[in-house]
Each structure stands twice: as structure tokens, then as C-alpha cells.
Design goal:
The chain is α/β, with parallel strands linked by helices. 24% of the residues lie in helices and 12% in strands. It contains 10 helices and 13 strands. A hairpin with a 4-residue loop joins strand 5 and strand 6. The longest helix is centred in the C-terminal third of the chain and has 13 residues. It is elongated.
Length: 342
């Protein structure tokens, strides 16, 4: 006797909006590998109601989908917003209007969020305002639940989606594809709850780590053998603004585009998963110091301990590391003490 096949659950319905931003998170997401993006959605049993780069509908057809969701005729399980919310001028939102509706995009976002099972901010712009909110912020850009480091944003501090969750901030500039697809899979499996987010409501699946973890320059960091210019191989924390010991992400453990990270490409980590990263108050490639001590010390490490350990490390730095740290390619190999040279 054959057993009946289990009844297939209805797909989770996802709607994606883009607001004030560059679309870089979508560009990164489309580059997902092993599996690719469409296979990821299929495996998670997610139906994309609309995405500006993946869907054929446009104009009135998209507005019809939004109206059905708001009217309760269409279920919305996951609302994704990419890009910051544009509230200007003077809180009216009329800097960014939804074509054909005479309504600000921010009003559509609020109405859709109220109907969504989960609301996901895709990228640091949607989470905190990001690059769009930098400078004088003439457009009054903000995130869904934050305005920079200040709680509130468009939806307010008390917002909860239909699942009882706050906005889930998949922050990054741009995001790694895996940060979002992993989060969506956990939501689809019913395994994403309050215990899965950190203090900024970012998924712990990637913010449990520091960018420092897995960095190919860690041996240089341990001995404080520092790079002096961007093409050098040494640690970029002391002189070149690297915040890998403070930034919460797994960039050097979860390869980007099959291999590599910002640091592997020779550029310091700018902590793009954190609110306010876009305005550090100095050049991204400069490390501010007081009395020669970097202002931004490693997360969870007391200053006195860092100074003491740094002094000891520098005193013990092997000549090989001193030489290689300020070179643009490895010039001196490690030596094996057990091998006697003649």
C-alpha cells in the first residue's frame, strides 16, 4: 500500500520594493551562487509576487498587486525593502512619489508593512538610512526602524509585523547574497524568532562573527606588523582605517563572488553593516589616533590590555613579517628552524 504524498504547503509570498538607493543589494543578490537566487526561492517555497529586476510586471499591474495586499485580497508573508525611505520635503515624502498614484512611496511602504508577516530591510540604507542619508540629508532619508543610530525611522520603535517580529535588518553595503537567502530560508522554515537577531535587529547568522575572523592578514595583526599604504600586505588597522576587529559580519569566512572580500582586495573594512558607517568623521582609509593609539579598538577589548599586548607583539615581530608587511607581494618566506642551513 502506497502512502499518500504529503500536502504541499502554500508558497510564502514575497514583495520587494526599492526606494532611495543604488540597487546594489539586488545586484549582489542576483550574483548568488550554490544555489543561484531562483533555486534558492524555489527551495524555500517562496513565491515572488514582484521584484523590480526579476518580474515582468510594471506600472498599473504592480499597483494592482499592492492594492490587493493592502485590501486583504492577497497574502503578504515577506515584505523586503531595498534603499532608504525618502521622507522629504518636510516629512511629506513628495520627493519620492509612486508613479500613477499621487501617493508618496513611504505611504505605500507603511501600508504594506502593516499587512506583512515579516518585514525585512535589505541593506544598510533600508535599515538605517545609509549612504542616502549622509551629509545634510536634504531628502530626509531614514531606515524602516532607525534614523542612523536613533530608533524610530519610518515605522517607529513599537512596530511589529504580523509575526510579532520587529523589522529584520539585513544590513550591509551591499549585502552578501547569503545573508538574505539564509534569513529567508529560516523564515520559510518557521525558525526565525527574536533569538536570531542581535541588538540592531540584524540576523545573528552573520553578525555572530567579526570581519576580523578569517582575515588573511591576521598574522600581521597579531604582531602589529602594519601596512603603511594600500598596496602593502600588512594589517590595515593601525594606519589605514580598517575596522575589521569591530565590524559584525562574516565577510572573510563566507566568500564573496566565489572568493575574496574587501580586505582580500586590498581595501580596509569600513564596517558597512553598522548604522552611521557612511560618516566616520574621517577618511575611510585613515585610522584616527590619540597619543599614537588607535581610537577604534577591537570590540570587547579594554584599552590598557590592547596597549600592553600591542607593545609585546611589536617587540616580538619576526623580521619576515616586518619586511612583508610593507611590501606589495611576499618577499620573505617563513623559515623552518628544524632545517639546518650550511
Amino acid at each position: 500500500m502506497t502512502r499518500p504524498l504529503p500536502e504541499r504547503r502554500r508558497p510564502l509570498r514575497l514583495f520587494w520594493m526599492q526606494s532611495g538607493g543604488c540597487g546594489g543589494c539586488t545586484l549582489s543578490l542576483i550574483g548568488a551562487e550554490g544555489p543561484d537566487l531562483l533555486a534558492t526561492f524555489e527551495a524555500a517555497n517562496i513565491e515572488v509576487l514582484w521584484h523590480p529586476s526579476l518580474s515582468e510586471q510594471s506600472g498599473r499591474a504592480v499597483i494592482d498587486i499592492m492594492e490587493r495586499i493592502i485590501g486583504g485580497e492577497e497574502t503578504l508573508d515577506i515584505l523586503c525593502l531595498e534603499g532608504s525611505v525618502m521622507r522629504g520635503p518636510n516629512g511629506t515624502g513628495r520627493f519620492h512619489m509612486m508613479a500613477g498614484t499621487d501617493r508618496p512611496v513611504m505611504d505605500w511602504i507603511s501600508d504594506l508593512a502593516a499587512k506583512a508577516g515579516h518585514v525585512v530591510a535589505v541593506g544598510s540604507c533600508a535599515a538605517y538610512g545609509g549612504i542616502t542619508a549622509a551629509g545634510a540629508n536634504e531628502v530626509e532619508a531614514c531606515g524602516l526602524s532607525y534614523d542612523g543610530q536613533k530608533e524610530g525611522g519610518l515605522l517607529g520603535t513599537d512596530f511589529r509585523s504580523q509575526s510579532g517580529m520587529p523589522v529584520i535588518n539585513v544590513a550591509g553595503c551591499p549585502i552578501h547574497p547569503g545573508w538574505l537567502t539564509e534569513t529567508l530560508h529560516m523564515i520559510a522554515a518557521g525558525r526565525f524568532g527574536a533569538s536570531e537577531i542581535d541588538e540592531w535587529e540584524r540576523p545573528l547568522s552573520y553578525t555572530m562573527h567579526l570581519v576580523h575572523h578569517g582575515c588573511a592578514r591576521n598574522e600581521f595583526y597579531e604582531f602589529k606588523a602594519s601596512a603603511e599604504k594600500l598596496c602593502d600586505l600588512g594589517c590595515m588597522m593601525e594606519n589605514l582605517g580598517c575596522k575589521g576587529t569591530q565590524a559584525r559580519a562574516d565577510c572573510n569566512m563566507r566568500a564573496w563572488n566565489g572568493s575574496g572580500s574587501c580586505l582580500d582586495g586590498g581595501y580596509p573594512c569600513i564596517n558597512c553593516t553598522a548604522p552611521g558607517f557612511e560618516e566616520p568623521g574621517h577618511s575611510f582609509t585613515l585610522t584616527p589616533k590619540i597619543s599614537g593609539i588607535p581610537v577604534g579598538l577591537p570590540t570587547d577589548m579594554p584599552k590598557a590590555w590592547f596597549v600592553a599586548l600591542a607593545s609585546l607583539s611589536k617587540a616580538a615581530t619576526p623580521p619576515r613579517l616586518k619586511e612583508n608587511a610593507v611590501a606589495d607581494h611576499l618577499t620573505r618566506p617563513p623559515a623552518d628552524r628544524q632545517k639546518k642551513t650550511r
